[in-house]
Amino acid sequence: MTEPRLWHDVDDYFTGLLAPPDAALTDALRDSDAAGLPQINVSPNTGKLLHLLAVIQGATRILEIGTLGGYSTIWLARALPQDGRLISLEYSERHAEVARHNLARAGLDKLTEVRVGPALDSLRTLAEEDPTPFDVVFIDADKVNNPRYVEWAVKLTRPGSLIVLDNVVRGGAVTDAGSDDPSVRGTREALELFATHPRLTATAIQTVGVKGYDGFALARVLP
Q: How far is Cα 164 from Cα 79, in angstroms, rounded to an integer?
């Protein structure tokens, strides 16, 4: 059996046992595919991990940068209490429409808000609103701006908050210091910021599975 096939089989086993799909999640993926959205949503196991991190954190405020069709948004929002709030930032109006529909069908529209526009502009507007600090920030948008997203995440959180940065392995290319790939360079800069920022302590994990060779970084905000 080839390694990728084995990765898929193990992921399928873990998903079926620990993160089985339900109607809202299945329908969200189906409608995202029908709308022609790219198939780059997180895996079910990663979605369950995000959910558990938010639950463990006792999150009442979550910020997501990169909504797509709202699949990861559903996982995260399900961790919130009835008076919680999740704000998700999405560049594409079309993607946002699909996500809003998926969130409403999941019964999460009262807890969530999808804002449309370039994320850096939305983050600046959000900061001007002086919001209550976020307990969890999930970054899964264009990789070029990852360093700026991390900087904003630190500003919009509190000591003890968690920041999750997705897709950090880049198929192994993240190790190439001379890469001219903007996504690799942006990811490396973000990881270096995780390593050097005085208010962050972090680690990064490689993963394999239905999404191929990938990984994520996790940081905790310090006082």
A: 15
Per-residue burial over 65-88, b = 16 or more CB atoms within 10 Å of its CB, e = otherwise: bbbbbbbbbbbbbbbbeeebbbbb
Write down the residue that tokens 């998926």 correspond to.
Answer: 102
What would the two tokens of residue 148 be?
């700026």
| 107, 83 contact by CB (below 8 A) | no
Q: Please state, as a whole number, how many other Cβ atoms lie within 10 Å of the Cβ of residue 98.
A: 23
Cα 87 from Cα 111, distance rounded (Å): 9
Q: 212: how many CB neighbours lie within 10 A of its CB?
A: 13
Q: DSSP code of 43?
A: P
Instruction: Give the pLDDT confidence of 78-121 residue by residue, as tens digits.
Output: 999 999 999 999 999 999 999 999 999 999 999 999 999 999 99
How many other C-beta atoms are found inside a 10 Å radius of the C-beta of residue 125? 12
Is the C-alpha dihedral spanning 110, 48, 67, 33 positive or negative? negative
∠ CA 219-213-20 to the nearest 5 degrees?
A: 80
Amino acid code (one letter) for 177:
A
Q: What are phi and psi of 157, to 5 degrees?
A: -120, -170
